[in-house]
Write a structure and sequence with these properties.
mainly alpha, single chain
Length: 79
């Protein structure tokens, strides 16, 4: 049961999706940080599911990655 709770934690899912989209662009965390104006350590925390990201930062990352904000929350294709 605890394993299922971890796998459905929206912070973990969001982090996986962010990493997937970032890597699809061929960007490092550092590149995404520079382009978005967010700290690299903050992005690392998001991708590890340790940060509860603010809505404004979700939109900032979506704009930087040139995807709709909803794409960051489409968890269907995560493995």
């Amino acid at each position: 049961m605890i394993r299922d709770a971890k796998q459905s934690d929206p912070r973990l899912l969001f982090g996986k999706k962010l990493a997937q989209l970032r890597k699809a662009r061929g960007w490092s965390q550092e590149k995404l940080a520079l382009e978005s104006g967010l700290a690299r350590s903050y992005l690392g925390g998001i991708e590890r599911g340790r940060r509860n990201i603010a809505l404004l930062n979700i939109f900032r990352l979506a704009e930087t990655l040139k995807v709709p904000a909803s794409a960051l929350m489409d968890f269907e294709d995560l493995s």
